[in-house]
Description:
Blueprint: E1 9-11, E2 14-16, E3 20-23, H1 30-40, E4 44-48, E5 73-77, H2 84-97, E6 103-106, H3 119-131, E7 135-140, H4 144-153, E8 157-160, H5 174-183, E9 189-191, H6 197-205, E10 210-213, H7 215-218, H8 223-243
Parallel strand pairs: 3-4, 3-10, 4-5, 6-7, 7-8, 9-10
Antiparallel strand pairs: 1-2
Helix pairs in contact: 1-8, 2-3, 3-4, 4-5, 6-8
Amino acid sequence: MNHMNEDLLxxxxxxxxxxxxxGSGKYKDLEQTRAATLAAGAQIITVAIRRVNIGQDPHAxxxxxxxxxxxxxxxxxxxxCYTAQDAVYTLQLARELLNGHKLVKLEVLGDEKxxxxxxxxxxxxxxxxxxDGFDVMVYCSDDPIQARMLExxxxxxVMPLASLxxxxxxxxxxxxxxxxxxxxxxxVLVDAGVGTxxxxxxxxxxxxxGVLMNTAIAAARDPVRMARAMRLAVEAGRxxxxxxxxxxxxxxxxxxxxxxxxx
Length: 263
């Protein structure tokens, strides 16, 4: 019996079988973008509206030709926005380009060096977008208080960073993530900082509802193979979390029973 089929991720009322969300940037070409996306088994693909053509330029290659909205849920994001106003405008443009599409990923960055979220601007943008009818998934710092504020505003998912965007440093503060997961009533997805499969598995073992990544796959030597590894890691981590790990013990405990043993 396959438990994976019953264990669905629900975001803004829609169910997804895959808990791995992927980005669409940094690949060598659109063909590789599609191949890696398929290998990842991802159903939600995030797209940087300011950097990627999804119809803004009718004369350039269109990402939607290789990851069409008929096959995938497109998640427009505000990468490259440093103010709430820019982010809101960018997502309103995305909604027009995608025929009234409501599910979006908000990120308001604090500076170009760290790409750390600017939380005061993020909160302002989140309020405005929720009021405007968007379903907002939101990139945020791994601060339990900020995460709760975003949930209270009405965001449909909170997405704390594991470490800096594109750093591949993995989960630097599992304790903060655990605090966020414990209190949240909406999905918590690790966004940013995953470097390899074990990072994704750890995020899922902690109880995250999903993982979003781009660079870890796109910058791998073999992106398609890494995409497959990430899919398996997310599934394994989720299964381990649902199975409930054995308690940690400080002393050895033999796997085989000792009673009745032949001397």
